[in-house]
Amino acid sequence: MSIGRTGERGPVPAGTEAADPRRWWGLVVIALAQLMVVLDATIVNIALPSAQRALHMSDGNRQWVITAYTLAFGGLLLLGGRIADLVGRKRTFVIGLIGFALASALGGAAGSSGMLFGARALQGVFAALLAPSALSLLTTTFTDPRERGKAFGIYGALAGSGSAIGFILGGLLTEYLNWRWCLYVNVPIAVVAVLGAFALLHDRPGHGGTARLDVPGAVLGCGGLVAIVYGFSEAEPRGWTDPLVLALFAVGIALLAVFVWWQNRAPDPLLPLHIVRDRNRAGCFLTMLLAVIGMFGLFLFMTYYLQVILGYSPVRAGLGFLPLTAAIIIGSTQISARLLNRVAPRMLMVPGMLLACAGLLLLTRMTVHSSYTSEILPALLLLGLGMGLTFMPVFATATAGVAPRDSGVTSATVNTAQQVGGSIGTALLNTVATTSAAAYVTAHLRSPADRATVVPAGVVHGYTVAIWWAAAVMLLAAVVAGLMVTTKPPRHGVSAQAQVRESVG
């Protein structure tokens, strides 16, 4: 591929515009912005122990550094896609970049945990604007089907490697500069992307000019999710039967119920319900939600386990996650992508979730003195392979056969399930871990002299209890995929792979 060359093959179909000669450089700008959004979901993980010490966060509240971002991102993603259609994709893209950079600078300068949580939530708000507009710009920039396949392949590979880059870059910045640079680093990236957007990207008119924003739907949906996640986090200090915790769960469920009712009546619903009424599509959304609940919780625990319990440096801890990411990429590109057109999707999704469950079950055996090579590494490889086997058929099946007008909202719904699963998983499993750890320490601490051995053992005990829960969720995901995703292998291999490329980004 020659950047800057048109590279056309064959005549341009009648009625289509001439290809932009700088479109491959435009792809670099779009991919850079997407990489920043994906990277930010993991870069802060490695910095979290340092940030927790600096800002005096409690173990129960630390998860909000991750959850505030994923919750705002997932809760507003559908609304962000609709805004991009109405306001203009390039304009929304630039606004998203500038807002993301300002929120990152605010987080880097945070003097308190509340300020950091707020900045991370703001990052999620602007990421919800940025991600759909980036995908839409990519779709309108590359109109030739063959070039579009290449472009989505590059975009998907960068998006898929973002978590690995986040872990490594987070480790380097935390160890050699300061945890705050894990947020400040977004500012120069965003500046380059904004300049590139003005110079290289061209918007094309959308088709949603007469549609209206479903603001009530966004408020109800996001409000319900926030109440539920906040309920999980408050269960750790207050207990599961505390009136506030029960009230938060009740309010969250009520708001989500009203959200569903409103989507049936809204003139321009945020989430057209016919999309989730399809059995296979609903099964894919639910499988994604459950799979990510387990994976995001694990990211949090393993970061603390490697740095606090095993004493790894931030860089070494970041590198410790590399096998997991490599296994996800291999499972996705070398196994799922090759088998997707030959076997039914659930024949990949069910074994994938069972492999991930097996990896988590191995991790339930970890102790204060576990060896990374013999005990942690095999579990991470199994988990990554299982997630890679699952992600590709989920994206392909969820977006197969939808009407063109629903393709954007369907892709956004898969991504929303991913972000919401991350929010719920991080909050729920962090609460389980901290509660179990506290109970263990209370039961085993006989004298102050025992504290040096009992507290680390209690922390690891909390992690293993939470990982048992994560394994159960993965098993439930396997059952959901097996019972709900009943579609047959796709008839046309090329079109199925194209769907995967488009949805992975």
From TrEMBL:
One Gene Ontology cellular component annotation held by this UniProt entry: plasma membrane
GO terms (BP aspect): response to antibiotic
Membrane-spanning intervals of the chain: 24-44, 64-81, 93-115, 121-140, 152-172, 178-201, 213-232, 244-262, 283-306, 318-340, 347-364, 376-403, 424-445, 465-485
Superkingdom per UniProt: Bacteria
Gene3D superfamilies: MFS general substrate transporter like domains, Multidrug resistance protein D
InterPro entries xref list: EmrB-like, MFS, MFS_dom, MFS_trans_sf, Sugar_transporter_CS
Keyword flag Transmembrane: yes
Topology in the lipid bilayer: Multi-pass membrane protein
Record organism: Streptomyces seoulensis
Main subcellular location of this protein, as a coarse class: membrane
Membrane listed as a keyword: yes
Compartment list: Cell membrane
Name of the protein: DHA2 family efflux MFS transporter permease subunit
Residue stretches making up the Major facilitator superfamily (MFS) profile domain: 26-489
Keyword terms: Antibiotic resistance, Cell membrane, Membrane, Transmembrane, Transmembrane helix, Transport
GO MF terms held by the record: transmembrane transporter activity
